[in-house]
From TrEMBL:
CDD domains: ASKHA_NBD_TsaB. InterPro entries: ATPase_NBD, Gcp-like_dom, T6A_TsaB. This is Universal protein YeaZ. Residues 37-154 form the Gcp-like domain. The lineage of its organism: Bacteria, Pseudomonadati, Spirochaetota, Spirochaetia, Spirochaetales. It comes from the Bacteria. NCBIfam families: T6A_YeaZ. SUPFAM superfamilies: Actin-like ATPase domain (SSF53067). GO terms for biological process: tRNA threonylcarbamoyladenosine modification.
Amino acid sequence: MNILSCDTSTEFMHLCLARLEEGKKPFFEKQVLTSGNQHSELLVVRILSLCERNNMQFKDLDLLVCTSGPGSFTGLRIAMSTLKGISLGSHIPMVSIPTLQAYQACNRSESHAILAVIDAKKKRFYAALFKDGVQLSPELDLEVGQIESLLAPYPDALLVGNDAALLATKLSKPYRFDEISHLNLSLVLCTLGKEKFERFGADDLDNGPLYVRKSDAEIALQQTISSLEETHD
């Protein structure tokens, strides 16, 4: 199965083109780059370059995989809408994987609890707690103090994800963190995507990103509505 995966939910862009077949050694090429606000300009260019370098066209792909969130509002939409466009145009099935679930899957050998985290800005983090591959908490939008309360029963927990090291510097107690495993995110997405597709089939193309927090635009709109209602009262 030829699989293309991508993630642009943070300032990092993760891309992978993989061939995964039972009984055969997997082939893959993955890329990780910091593209920040240039995801929209670089993603399609990088995908085309990756396929061309491996003598592959869209019609040769069997599955597309991206993250579903949480993460950057704009970043999540860029990856998902790009792959949806390829899916519709080339009739390739597509699946999405929760971002924090993918991060924890990069550390499947870890025996202790795992807290997967993404910097949510505004002194907050998106986080989810896992143990032995089982998700113990929903995807959460937390302040540092709330994260410490979540971690209290798990003093040996491992922090993972792009921003694990950043969170570790803000906690009052020392926790182990992994700065490297997220570099395998795109390859892990290929594996998780294949497993999900074989069990459940393709996602409904109407599915959108998972937003744990309202966007700034939604908050501003709600404030405007509330202000107008108070004025009329």
